[in-house]
């Protein structure tokens, strides 16, 4: 692996030599012109090309052209990102991780309009809640970003930026039907008082989505209790704001989302085993810009009522033993999160100085009721976590902006308090306790350099530190999880990582873009599920983890300069990721040393084409995910085999019907065209959804 990393260093050093050996005048004339502005990397608006790090952007147009149904599926096309949606659109806990951090929730920070979405108890993100019709763009900052964001930003940051109106009145309606009786209806109405982008604006979007699901258990393992998974969702998002002038506005948002997700088993309870999410989100944000000063105040409050109804039976054949083998547990968890994020920036000559302060609070209040038979057992778990951080950052441009230096430092303080667990169930009564408060603090530095050898050739190098505080569920909750009893660990400590990264971008001709990145991360006190007995497990700090990775990206427009409209907008794209994440040191269980982190494939790649033409537009891609393990001991019995999926989408509008036809578009997309079936989780009875097809008709006005 070190040899491969050395080759990447050599290739980046060779970039300028190869380029300068050619026709310099021609190369400069064909330099890439990247005018995109991004806010996620520095929390200030900066040109994408000047960021000394790896930032990817998915635009609204690209999102509509991709053969995807959810936001997290779109992210899976980015190198360095691993996404899991085991049961298709009816997946209740889709995960997204970056840079080999494993599928442990909370190591990748997810934002919507700058507001953190990771829950304090599980670290998870409810990806189903995100309506594709609301997304204006997605910015992905790879690598640790704790220097400006603090907790959770170990692998990177994903910022989903939502739409705002640009016309006095605009809107859209769409409906789609797909595999497993999947029905989606979306509607948007928006407008503003003036088209000069000042004054009052408002936007309302609504989504209703139902899916009858499929039987995720192979036929030979199904029982009389096996049912289809399912999804029933309704969502409303409202936005009201006022633009005072360029860069200055006040905006309020409210989102209401309600979901019920079935898990494929029904014995006695109505709808069987299922999860419910009832969410209210509020946000108020003020942005300002004046004579070189800019800043932001972003306040938010989120309230989610989570429920789970779980039932199981150990004897499927003997009905007379039904009651003795049947169990049911109902779970209720109230999750609250609120906070404020602030930053102020000043452009002063070649410098952009930024300082900021963040505060957030997370609350978990949960109860499990075991309702199988009298007596009714209960278990309650409660806890809070408070985080605050202050940071300072400077971006310096030298030598006519050819050399960019970015430096930042952040101090964070995290405290868990009011934690307790209580139960009347005898076998868990030993864990009843009011836990002591815990406080951790950490300094997160970041330094990054970028140099432009020519306008079309650049390289960067960086170092960053990041940390993640423990999750409330891991510290304070004892109960059933993944077929075993999970025991709380009130002494769990934070994990942190140091990452070194280099990379480069080269555009030898106007229709070819190349990018390469390499990273080495050293993780300290990483957290992982450890088996403590044949029936119990606990999240523990497992010691040191070593991560090595390479990413390569290419985009080629072979017919960009032809005069034929049919081929002019035909483009090829591809990327490859190599990642090796291994436990390096673990004194408590040396047998785990050298083992790969769970759910981290060593190899993955995407390759495909996008073809826009006057007749029928299309996007086709192959996604490959290599072998990975679902247990910490890397046993072959729990390995998830490599798989490659072919996905595609075709679409066109009805412009041949005149100006009104231009407003109507029909699309047809297929995921997993060859219907490849494989086991998707640590459980040997869980199959993926297989081939899915969707037909959509949309109209804008």
What this model shows, in words?
Strand 19 and strand 20 form a beta hairpin. The protein has eight helices and 38 strands. It has a 22-stranded antiparallel β-barrel. A five-stranded mixed β-sheet has the order 3-8-9-6-7. The chain has 701 residues and is mostly beta strands. The radius of gyration is 26 Å and the shape is globular.
Structure summarized in a few sentences:
With 701 residues, this protein is mainly beta. The protein is 8% helix and 56% strand.
Task: Label this structure with key terms.
701 residues, mainly beta, 22-stranded antiparallel β-barrel, five-stranded mixed β-sheet, globular
Q: What percentage of amino acids are in beta strands?
A: over 45%
Structural class: mainly beta
On the 0-100 scale, what is the average pLDDT? 90
Tell me roughly what share of residues is in helical segments. under 10%
Number of helices: 8
How can the largest sheet be summarized? 22 strands, antiparallel, barrel
Oligomer: single chain
Radius of gyration: 26 Å
Q: Give the terminus-to-terminus CA distance.
A: 54 Å
Detail the poorly predicted runs: 1-35
Specify the overall morphology.
globular
Counting DSSP E segments of at least 2 residues, the number of strands comes to 38
List the helices and strands and how they pair.
Elements: H1 2-20, H2 24-29, E1 37-38, E2 46-47, E3 55-59, H3 60-65, H4 71-75, E4 81-84, E5 95-98, E6 108-112, E7 115-116, E8 135-142, H5 146-149, E9 156-162, E10 170-178, E11 182-192, E12 199-211, E13 226-245, E14 248-265, E15 274-290, E16 293-313, H6 322-325, E17 326-348, E18 351-370, E19 377-398, E20 403-423, E21 433-434, E22 438-454, E23 457-468, H7 472-476, E24 479-481, E25 484-487, E26 495-509, E27 512-524, E28 527-531, E29 536-541, E30 544-556, H8 565-568, E31 569-585, E32 603-612, E33 617-625, E34 628-629, E35 639-640, E36 643-653, E37 664-671, E38 692-700
């Amino acid at each position: 692996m070190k040899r491969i990393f050395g080759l990447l260093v050599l290739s980046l050093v060779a970039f300028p030599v190869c380029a300068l050996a050619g026709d310099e005048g021609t190369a400069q004339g064909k330099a890439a012109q990247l005018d995109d502005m991004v806010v996620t990397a520095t929390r200030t608006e900066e040109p994408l090309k000047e960021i000394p790090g790896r930032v990817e952007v998915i635009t609204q147009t690209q999102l509509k052209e991709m053969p995807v149904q959810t936001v997290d599926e779109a992210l899976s096309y980015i190198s360095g990102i691993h996404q899991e949606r085991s049961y298709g659109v009816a997946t209740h806990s889709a995960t997204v991780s970056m840079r080999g951090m494993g599928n442990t929730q909370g190591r990748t920070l997810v934002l919507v309009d700058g507001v953190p979405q990771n829950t304090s108890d599980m670290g998870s993100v409810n990806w189903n809640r995100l309506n594709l019709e609301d997304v204006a763009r997605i910015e992905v900052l790879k690598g640790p970003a704790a220097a400006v964001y603090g907790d959770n930003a170990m692998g990177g940051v994903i910022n989903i930026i939502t739409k705002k109106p640009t016309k006095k009145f605009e809107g859209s309606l769409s409906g789609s039907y797909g595999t497993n009786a999947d029905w989606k209806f979306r509607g948007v109405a928006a407008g503003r008082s003036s088209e000069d982008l000042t004054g009052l604006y408002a936007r309302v979007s609504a989504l209703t989505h139902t899916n009858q699901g499929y039987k995720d258990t192979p036929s030979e393992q199904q029982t009389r209790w096996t049912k289809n998974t399912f999804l029933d969702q309704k969502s409303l998002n409202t936005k009201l704001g006022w633009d005072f002038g360029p860069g200055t506005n006040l905006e309020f948002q409210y989102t209401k989302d309600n979901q019920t997700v079935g898990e494929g088993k029904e014995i006695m309870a109505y709808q069987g085993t299922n999860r419910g999410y009832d969410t209210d989100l509020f946000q108020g944000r003020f942005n300002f810009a004046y004579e070189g000063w800019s800043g932001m105040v972003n306040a938010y409050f989120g309230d989610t009522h989570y429920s789970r109804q779980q039932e199981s039976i150990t004897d499927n054949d003997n009905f007379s033993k039904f009651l003795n083998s049947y169990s049911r547990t109902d779970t209720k968890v109230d999750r609250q999160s609120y906070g404020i994020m602030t930053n102020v920036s000043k452009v002063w000559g070649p410098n952009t100085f930024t300082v900021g302060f963040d505060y957030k609070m997370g609350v978990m209040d949960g109860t499990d009721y075991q309702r199988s038979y009298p007596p009714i057992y209960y278990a309650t778990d409660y806890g809070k976590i408070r985080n605050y951080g202050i940071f300072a950052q400077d971006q310096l441009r030298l030598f006519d902006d050819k050399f960019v230096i970015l430096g930042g430092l952040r101090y964070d303080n995290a405290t868990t308090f009011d934690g307790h667990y209580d139960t009347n169930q005898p076998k868990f009564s030993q864990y009843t306790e009011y836990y002591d408060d815990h406080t951790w603090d950490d300094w997160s530095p970041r330094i990054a350099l970028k140099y432009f050898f020519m306008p079309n050739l650049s390289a960067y190098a960086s170092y960053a530190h990041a940390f993640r505080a423990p999750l409330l569920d891991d510290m304070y909750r004892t109960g059933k999880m993944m077929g075993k009893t999970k025991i709380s660990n009130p002494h769990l400590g934070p994990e942190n990582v140091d990452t070194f990264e280099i990379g480069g971008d080269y555009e030898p001709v106007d229709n070819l873009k190349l990018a390469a990145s390499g990273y080495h991360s050293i993780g300290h006190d990483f957290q992982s599920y450890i088996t403590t007995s044949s029936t119990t497990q606990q999240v523990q700090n497992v010691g040191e983890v070593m991560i090595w990775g390479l990413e390569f990206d290419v985009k080629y427009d072979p017919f960009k300069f032809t005069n034929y409209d049919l081929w002019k907008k035909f483009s090829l794209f591809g990327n490859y990721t190599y990642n090796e994440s291994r436990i390096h040191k673990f004194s408590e269980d040396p047998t785990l040393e050298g083992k790969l982190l769970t759910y981290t494939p060593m190899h993955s790649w995407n390759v495909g084409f996008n073809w826009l033409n006057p007749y029928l537009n299309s996007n086709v891609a192959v996604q490959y995910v290599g072998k990975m393990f679902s247990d910490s001991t890397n046993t072959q019995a729990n390995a998830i085999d490599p798989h490659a999926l072919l996905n595609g989408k075709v679409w066109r509008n009805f412009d041949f019907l005149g100006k009104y036809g231009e407003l109507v578009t029909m699309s047809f997309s297929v995921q997993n065209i060859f219907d490849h079936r494989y086991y998707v989780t640590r459980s040997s009875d869980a199959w993926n959804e297989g081939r899915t097809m969707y037909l959509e008709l949309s109209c804008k006005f």
